[in-house]
């Protein structure tokens, strides 16, 4: 099977582990991020340096036809919307306007633009699997994460609506990966308790070994996407399988 995989935020953390997983499986991978990842094999990896929080830049790039050329001839297309900003880690009233303005287009607009474009342009016979990287923060209310949680809840509901539309050969799910040991977690642990009342919880998770590795989470997510039942649970969680 000719599988082409598009992964946002592939240059670090979970996204890099996902890209590495699919490259090792022999899939063609297109990574979208501000930095290159330095992954191998090089011949299977295409990279586009782009700031996904810049909606105008992303829209212009999509209009250029690169995605259509990348997926040409594919039997299976996988889109993993992984890129996200967790900031602002702060309760309402203490959030920085610039962080809100950067987070919303990255966390919500970019995934929806990419999903919409691929649904519209995929080859008729190809199967398209869309995986939003969701979060428990989008399914539970946590103080300090009104912006991040709202964004993840938006992706959950986007997946529900697209699934309800019943596009031919399109499967979609929003998958919560659990708490993964990435740079995002470092950022969370640096937050001030006055801004982010849950910071102690994340410090304890790290010290108690409660974080999964990016490689473990990537393998679990890839297994869920590969399952013939992918999309049956539209809002899913890797911890369901542990």
UniProtKB/TrEMBL annotation:
GO molecular function: sepiapterin reductase (NADP+) activity
InterPro entries: Biopterin_syn/organic_redct (IPR051721), NAD(P)-bd_dom_sf (IPR036291), SDR_fam (IPR002347)
Superkingdom as given in the UniProt entry: Bacteria
Record keywords, A-Z: Cytoplasm, NADP, Oxidoreductase
One GO cellular component term noted in the UniProt record for this chain: cytoplasm
Subcellular location: Cytoplasm
BP-aspect Gene Ontology terms: tetrahydrobiopterin biosynthetic process
Signal peptide: none
Main location per the UniProt record: cytoplasm
Protein name per UniProt: Short-chain dehydrogenase
């Amino acid at each position: 099977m000719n599988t082409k995989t598009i992964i946002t935020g592939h240059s670090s953390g979970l996204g890099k582990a996902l890209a590495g997983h699919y490259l090792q499986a022999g899939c063609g991978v297109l990574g979208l991020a501000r930095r290159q990842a330095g992954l191998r094999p090089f011949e299977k990896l295409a990279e586009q340096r782009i700031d996904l929080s810049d909606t105008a830049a992303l829209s212009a790039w999509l209009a250029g036809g690169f995605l259509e050329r990348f997926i040409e001839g594919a039997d299976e297309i996988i889109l993993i919307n992984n890129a996200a900003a967790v900031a602002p880690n702060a309760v309402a009233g203490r959030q920085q306007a610039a962080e809100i303005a950067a987070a919303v287009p990255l966390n919500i607009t970019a995934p929806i633009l990419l999903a919409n474009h691929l649904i519209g342009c995929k080859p008729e016979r190809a199967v398209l699997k869309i995986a939003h990287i969701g979060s428990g923060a989008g399914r539970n209310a946590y103080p300090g994460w009104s912006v991040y949680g709202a964004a993840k809840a938006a992706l959950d509901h986007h997946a529900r609506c697209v699934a309800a539309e019943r596009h031919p050969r399109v499967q979609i799910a929003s998958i919560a990966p659990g708490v993964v040991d990435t740079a995002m977690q470092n950022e969370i642990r640096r937050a001030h308790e006055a801004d982010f009342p849950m910071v102690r919880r994340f410090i304890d998770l790290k010290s108690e070994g409660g974080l999964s590795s990016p490689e473990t989470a990537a393998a679990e997510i890839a297994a869920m996407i590969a399952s013939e039942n992918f999309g049956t649970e539209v809002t899913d969680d890797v911890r369901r399988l542990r």
